[in-house]
Design goal:
The chain is built from three helices and three strands. It is of the alpha+beta class. Strands 2-1-3 form a three-stranded mixed β-sheet, with no helix packed on it. The longest helix is centred in the first third of the chain and has 12 residues, at about 15-25. The structure holds glutathione. Glutathione binds near residues 52 and 68.
Length: about 80
């Protein structure tokens, strides 16, 4: 079972930065590409209370989720590098 989940957008530079780090670290993850319209991002909003991306969930993490690319990259480096 994949423990890492990423909500992102293909065209989002912050999402691209997180995907590059996941790739660098050779980590498997489940990706959910959120809809363009924020009003349609109901799944990520239900889980996090906001509609921005990227958002990372990881069972290994103390926090329930991270919603900032710098924090996500720093966490991935700490946990998996
Ligand atoms: N500081 C955030 C910025 C992320 C950001 O601005 N993402 C854009 C998409 S590229 C977004 O979702 N903006 C709408 C919002 O934050 O509600 C990060 O580095 O993760």
């Amino acid at each position: 079972m994949t423990q890492i989940e990423l909500y992102d957008r293909e065209d989002c530079p912050y999402s691209q930065k997180v995907r590059a780090k996941l790739s660098d670290l050779d980590l498997d993850y489940d990706e959910t590409v959120v809809p363009d319209a924020h009003s349609d991002r109901t799944e990520v909003e239900d889980r996090t209370g906001q509609t921005g991306v990227p958002v990372l969930f990881d069972e290994q993490m103390d926090e329930e989720f991270l919603a900032d690319s710098n924090e996500i990259v720093a966490y991935l480096d700490r946990q998996y590098n």
